[in-house]
Amino acid sequence: MHDHPHNHSHGGAIEGRHSRVYNRLARLLMRPQYRRIAADIASSAPHGAAVLDIGTGPGLLLRSLAATRPDLRLTGIDIAQDMIDHASSNLADLRVDLRAADVASLPFEDDTFDLVVTTYSSHHWGDPATAASEIRRVLRPEGRLLNYDFERAPFTTLETALAQTSRTNFRAPWSLVMKTIRFEARPPMTEQ
Ligand SMILES: C[S@@+](CC[C@H](N)C(=O)[O-])C[C@H]1O[C@@H](n2cnc3c(N)ncnc32)[C@H](O)[C@@H]1O
């Protein structure tokens, strides 16, 4: 399938025509995938948790999360302003904080989020080591990162700043063509 939403080899931002195609195909084909991932996130998210979705793209994971768990406080960032524009229109009826930003320079205070989530984005990040320390910085000490991505994602680099708690195969509707790893990590314990 030539125009499959995840079938692209270029790295970094997905912009312009690519973002329009991605938005259209994601809306058409990927909703069951987002629903499955949102259910997994929802099953462990504390009540009222502040959740950041990095590389949110068209924002459809946030849409599923809002439907499953209206108590969550949702924020989404993407390096591509075009994607943030698609997300703003897809989430126009919801209260979600959406901003254009690079994961390597997150526009948030330290200790802001209970959960950082990200789907099929981390394999695009230009500087995963800086991304990892930024994620650690914005996570509360008891917070967690949940990253759903392909095997080639920089999981090992993410472990440099975060303590891995698990890395498992994730079963979802598109698993056959999008073999997905569920990677969970926490900020490491700080010495007293
Ligand atoms: C394959 S899309 C995934 C979008 C969405 N999470 C999903 O599951 O449909 C990858 C997204 O990551 C974004 N991205 C790439 N590099 C990024 C970075 N350094 N910081 C933030 N977002 C980034 C791209 O612009 C794109 O929207």
TrEMBL record:
Q: Which SUPFAM superfamilies match?
A: S-adenosyl-L-methionine-dependent methyltransferases
Every copy of the Methyltransferase type domain together lies at 52-146
The residue ranges crossing the membrane are none
Keywords, in A-Z order: Methyltransferase, Transferase
Query: What biological-process GO terms show up in the record?
Result: methylation
Q: Which GO terms describe its molecular function?
A: S-adenosylmethionine-dependent methyltransferase activity
Q: State the protein's name.
A: Methyltransferase family protein
Recite the lineage of the species: Bacteria, Bacillati, Actinomycetota, Actinomycetes, Glycomycetales
